[in-house]
């Protein structure tokens, strides 16, 4: 009899361990608001619960009212104040429920007029200095939030009425960007004001790499003449440089090229000089021939160069995009 009781006890213990393992095997779902959890009044927002594949049932809860929806997606075509609040979700597989997701705070913005945002002492700050961003409202709010574009969440602070200071100590290049602030009341934590005008914080003294463009080639006859004169002067200076005596041995420096490369470079330089001289000679012969021909046969007509007008700019076509709103789900 005691052996049977021991067997039943072991069986119950094993079943309890299996059930506990199955319960812990379900991962926690994620809950997010698209495009953002800060939703202006009248705009579209979608609340989505995401779990593993092959989920039997999703449950989306609104904690303030206690209502729930047996669906994974809640679409709100027009944001209203009554939709603002805290949400969470879970899912069911078989007889097991998953742990609840992290709480999502859905905030309605634009309920009150926007505050003002300023930087003290200035919006341009050197690295290592301190700056304070001040959010100020005309109403007696006791809560303020500061957002930076690109960050996932706000910086909230309960400050004295009408304004809040957000100090940034030891500024670095990562602090540069666009900031906005909101004001609201602790009695209505999910009904916020409209965002303030954007404030651009610039961290000065950062190194900027500049690329030097190569000089443009000569485009007129005058520039070509000046370019040719400077080139000839350079060739004359190179040609007039005295070579070292043959009985003196010149050792190359460490940075000098090997003798073979130096000889090749010298040969290429001579070829360039010869080609340039041939081009100049042909140019001078052409000028002399033209002058001799003009003496024998005087010009009858002189044709001036005619500047052709530029073609008209292409006509751009304006396009517009239709905007649509997704269809919301019915609540369960």
TrEMBL record:
Q: Could you list the residue ranges that cross the membrane?
A: 271-292
On whether Disulfide bond is a keyword of this UniProt record, the answer is yes
- InterPro entries from the xrefs? Ig-like_dom, Ig-like_dom_sf, Ig-like_fold, Ig-like_Receptors_ImmuneReg, Ig_sub, Ig_sub2
| Domain of life according to the entry | Eukaryota
Q: Which UniProt keywords apply?
A: Disulfide bond, Immunoglobulin domain, Membrane, Signal, Transmembrane, Transmembrane helix
Keyword Ribonucleoprotein listed? The answer is no
GO MF terms on file? collagen binding; collagen receptor activity; protein tyrosine kinase binding
The record's section on SMART domains has:
IG, IGc2
Q: Which terms in the GO cellular component ontology are assigned?
A: cell surface; membrane raft; plasma membrane; tetraspanin-enriched microdomain
The record's listing under Gene3D superfamilies reads: Immunoglobulins (2.60.40.10)
In this protein, which residues make up the domain named Ig-like? 115-181
Q: Where is the signal peptide?
A: 1-21
Give the organism the record lists.
Sus scrofa
Would you kindly state one Gene Ontology biological process term found in this protein's UniProt entry? collagen-activated tyrosine kinase receptor signaling pathway
User: How is this protein named in the record?
Assistant: Glycoprotein VI platelet
Residue segments, region Disordered: 238-259, 310-332
């Amino acid at each position: 009899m005691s052996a049977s009781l021991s067997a039943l006890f072991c069986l119950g213990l094993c079943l309890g361990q299996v059930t506990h393992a199955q319960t812990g095997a379900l991962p926690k779902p994620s809950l997010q608001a698209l495009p953002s959890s800060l939703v202006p009044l009248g705009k579209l927002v979608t609340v989505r619960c995401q779990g593993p594949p092959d989920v039997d049932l999703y449950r989306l809860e609104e904690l303030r009212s206690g209502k729930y929806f047996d669906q994974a997606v809640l679409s709100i075509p027009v944001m209203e104040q009554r939709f603002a609040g805290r949400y969470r979700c879970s899912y069911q597989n078989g007889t097991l429920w998953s742990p609840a997701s992290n709480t999502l705070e859905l905030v309605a913005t634009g309920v009150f007029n926007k505050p003002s945002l300023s930087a003290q002492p200035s919006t341009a700050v050197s690295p290592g200095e301190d700056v304070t961003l001040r959010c100020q409202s005309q109403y007696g709010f006791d809560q303020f939030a500061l957002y930076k574009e690109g960050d996932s969440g706000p910086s909230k602070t309960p400050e004295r009425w009408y304004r809040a200071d957000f100090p940034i100590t030891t500024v670095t290049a990562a602090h540069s960007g666009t900031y906005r602030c909101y004001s609201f009341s602790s009695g209505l934590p999910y009904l916020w004001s409209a965002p303030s005008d954007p404030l651009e914080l610039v961290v000065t003294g950062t190194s900027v790499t500049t690329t030097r463009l190569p000089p443009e080639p000569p485009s007129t006859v005058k520039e070509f003449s000046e370019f040719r004169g400077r080139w000839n002067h350079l060739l004359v200076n190179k040609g007039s440089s005295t070579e070292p005596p043959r009985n003196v041995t010149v050792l190359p420096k460490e940075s000098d090229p090997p003798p073979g490369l130096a000889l090749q470079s010298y040969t290429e330089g001579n070829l360039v000089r010869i080609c340039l001289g041939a081009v100049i000679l042909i140019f001078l012969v052409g000028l002399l021939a033209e002058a001799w021909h003009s003496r024998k046969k005087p010009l009858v007509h002189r044709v001036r160069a005619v500047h052709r007008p530029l073609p008209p700019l292409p006509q751009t076509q304006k396009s517009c995009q239709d905007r649509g709103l997704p269809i919301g789900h019915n609540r369960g």
